[in-house]
Amino acid sequence: MKKSGTASISRKGVERWKNGHPWIYAADVESVGDDVQGGDVVRVEDGRGWFLGQALYSKASKISLRWLSWEDGPIDAAVFRARLEAADALRRREYPDDTAYRVVHGEADLLPGLVVDRFGDYLSVQFLHAGTERRKQLFVDLLAAHFSPKAIVNRSDAHVRTLEGLTPEKGLLFGELPPVVTYREGHVVLEVDLLHGQKTGAFLDQRDNHVRASDFGHGDALDCFSYAGGFALQLGLKARKVTAVEISESACAQIGKNATRNGLANVEVVCANAFDFLRDALDEGRRFDTVVLDPPSFAKNKDAIAAATRGYKEINLRAMQLLRPGGTLITASCTHHVAEEAFEAMLDGAAADSKRRVQIIEKRGAGKDHPVLLGLRETRYLKCFVLRVL
């Protein structure tokens, strides 16, 4: 019988573990103690019973073990508190004048299955693993003690929870929440609905790229997949006119509110499918000086990579055709299944098919509040290229 509170992994799993990857898949777990439940902290051993470290265990997910420690000490509230404080210390050092940032980025901050975004006095949290779900109240207490927030919102309505055998959920965990929360990105103030907005309410991973976009905004600008206008508003600070294209009617309304709040009368909102808009704009002979493409993820799994690449190529090809000579294309992908090299190769193909010569001005990623964990490619998911179309 397997020892209490332990999980034994195969030679392949041991090699993966020793090479630093923080995930061990179910196929490489040879046995688990009879008393082990989903969300438990387990001792990880090799086939000989030698101790390798500790991990959070999942019964439902294909990812059975998520690394917590190389050491054989207690994994308790003090450990989680120290990791939370260390994560926030990084953000406060990198963004000393900001109060809107990602506090915890899951495995990258050694807190697997936990995401925490800060919007001033309000926190939006995702519990994405049975281990963090079981310790929900502990994390709420730790966050309340560290930040003294006015409210903590549960945005665990992500589909990934179903892969862990958990039901998506959202609601208020602590304090009182106003209908609208505001936060600043550079010179722009944005409104966010923490309970009903996408993800945790906003896409903080693009914040630095939003602000950088204002340096490139000029002439007639187009922002596709605009959501709440993160790129469009920054472009509006410099461009003559900005057309923000978004398919969601509620998001379109939010762009309008954000534009009014910031006094940007040059931002026009078009509620439409971005693919259709790009095609129709070409047919109508329209041209732009700046184009931004920031679509949602096109590939939820590896089987969708080919279709995702075709989708990326279609919109980027049309964007290149729509740009006047010397125009700027800011194009992004948040699909971690499409690596940066593959994304660049797609752009190369789009440039060739559009019969345009294209320069790479910058390669960017998520902000410094979204650190990348070496060995876990999934934490380096966001690609953002700044291109000049000749």
Structure description:
It is a single chain. The radius of gyration is 23 Å and the shape is globular. A hairpin with a 5-residue loop joins strand 5 and strand 6. It has a seven-stranded mixed sheet with strand order 16-15-14-17-18-20-19, with helices on both faces. Strands 2-6-5-4-1-3 form a six-stranded mixed sheet. The protein has a five-stranded mixed sheet with strand order 7-8-9-10-11. It has 390 residues and is of the alpha/beta class. The longest helix has 18 residues, at 77-94. It has helices at residues 11-18, 77-94, 130-134, 136-147, 160-163, 207-213, 230-236, 249-261, 274-283, 305-322, 340-354; strands at 6-9, 23-25, 29-32, 41-45, 51-57, 63-69, 100-105, 114-119, 122-127, 151-156, 169-175, 181-185, 188-192, 220-224, 241-246, 267-271, 288-293, 323-333, 358-364, 383-389.
SS content category: alpha/beta
**Major sheet summary line:** 7 strands, mixed
Question: What is the overall pLDDT average?
Answer: 95
Helical percent range? 25-40%
Output the radius of gyration: 23 Å
List segments where confidence is low: pLDDT < 50 over at least 5 consecutive residues: none
Please, how many helices? 11
What's the total number of strands?
Answer: 20
Shape: globular
How much of the polypeptide forms β-strand, as a percent range? 25-35%
Strand order of the largest sheet: 16-15-14-17-18-20-19
**How far from one another are the termini?**
68 Å
Write the layout of secondary structure elements.
Elements: E1 6-9, H1 11-18, E2 23-25, E3 29-32, E4 41-45, E5 51-57, E6 63-69, H2 77-94, E7 100-105, E8 114-119, E9 122-127, H3 130-134, H4 136-147, E10 151-156, H5 160-163, E11 169-175, E12 181-185, E13 188-192, H6 207-213, E14 220-224, H7 230-236, E15 241-246, H8 249-261, E16 267-271, H9 274-283, E17 288-293, H10 305-322, E18 323-333, H11 340-354, E19 358-364, E20 383-389
Parallel strand pairs: 1-4, 9-10, 14-15, 14-17, 15-16, 17-18
Antiparallel strand pairs: 1-3, 2-6, 4-5, 5-6, 7-8, 8-9, 10-11, 12-13, 18-20, 19-20
Helix pairs in contact: 2-4, 6-7, 9-10, 10-11
